[in-house]
Amino acid sequence: MSADASNAPVVYVALLRDLVNSFELDIAFLRHTDFENRTTVLIAEWPPRTNVAHPDPLHTVPFDGADPIFAAAESLDSVLTVCVDGGIADYRTRVESASGFVPQSLVAVPLIAGAATVEVLGFGKLAGRDWTEDEFNALRAIAALTTQVHTRVAAEERFRYSATHDEQTGLVNRGALLDYLRGRLADHTSGPVAILFLDLGRFEALSNFLGHLAGDEYIAAAARALTRDVGATALIARLGGDEFVLVLHGPSNAHHAHLTARTALDAIRLLDVPGLDRSRRATVGISIAHPGRVAADEALQRADQAALIAKVNGDNDVVQFTDSVQRQSELRSDIEIHLRTAIRNDSLVLYFQPEIDLITKRITAVEALVRWQHPHRGLLPPAAFIPVAEATNLAGELGSWVLEQSLRTLGEWATSLPDLDISMRVNVSPAQLVGAGFVDEVEKVLRRHSIEGSSLWLEITEVAVVRDIEHTRRTLAGLRRLGVRIAIDDFGTGFSSLSHLKALPVDALKIDRAFVADLGFAGGDLAIVDSVIGLAASFGLDVIAEGVETLDAANTLIDRGCTRAQGYLMSRPVSAVDALALLRVGTIDI
Question: pTM value?
């Protein structure tokens, strides 16, 4: 018979039947060697047994601890004949429990591919039997032909597997996932289908920091963790990059989906990954699809949209698709499309918020804050589009635009006010900080606008600092050589440590507005502010308070030794023209 992967089981059974009849035997079987699990697996037998126990004692037998006959199948390289009568108690017990009888004469013929025993043909006779050399030669020839079938079947299965599975993780790929979803959603009796779209956080940054090998190891570890913790309850697929999809088995509801999402997130958080905090390593979007109402592609897209909203919002790592999520997704797409054009056409605008010395009231610096005059939605604050920029790889391009325009504006102010002595503060995204050539870019912009490096302060977040300390150290050292100074923004909300502050060339800490707004009223905030001020003093760093909105907060900061601040009490962010007017005066009386 012509044999391939589709009909191999039928061919094997027919072969065993004919061999039993031709050699006047009682049984014949074919066992496969599972090298990964070190077991021998029954794949065909004749005659078929009836009333087979579950589990079948003969189906899968581990080599470790097996009796000598089964153990021999792992490395058999020649025809083996065995007389079972009266010996090998473990073998007799196993076979008799599964078949009701034990053959007295047994012959095993290896199927060898390369140097490995891939399968074993076995033949048994209830009574004793003498074999001739011609019969052995015939069995060897049959084994050689069967090996060819095995090789063909294995090649087809490898091809089919590679077409439906992700090479790196062994999980099913997008094509196989969609085929599975189509089948589930075509079955009107299957009930609601829960789809969970899991997106690993900061994977690209991890690969950039530690190398692609580390990124690959992280993906593989995540796949193993998901398989271990939720593989029994869901089909798990990898779509590529840092994206995984879980489709829960059986009918599911939102509650069940959320519980599984939490289990998956916990599995990711427990992975030991240097440089990544455990608090928000992944986000999950949930879509509940009803058969007959939604196609597989759309159901998957809805889960993806929910995951993106979770990633952008930053306040919830699990989001279920709803009409509201749909509207947010449409807004996000609108912003993404127009933001790219706005950056490239210089359609954005900078506002500037002064920083003052609380004692002298002198303006010491201004912080550049980007705004966007959206063509349809009006003037948008940074919170409306910067998270989208970070989630869509536009953060670097946006940051470069802000750096260029802020230093150009500082140069124009210096032309109008030759005695101007202030610093320009510019926020730097993690994407810029880890990007190749960032130091060179800063140097070129400074030179282009004739700005001294000491007039530029770059503000980075704590998260950006701790992602890759060594890379950050090299970048900051390069900026220090230009005279550029560094402030850690929103200090107290991230994951910096004393060792980081000691190791990195940092010049200032900015106390996050969350700890400043209620100063004079909230004791807990005061304790944190005192700690940050003391920490800055210990390391010889400047300290600046953000979000000062009341005189009580300003006076409390002065009493604590923090004399530099910015906030609505002094000035809201203003246009370049209004900022220049403030600079002409030079002070702000609060």
Answer: 0.56
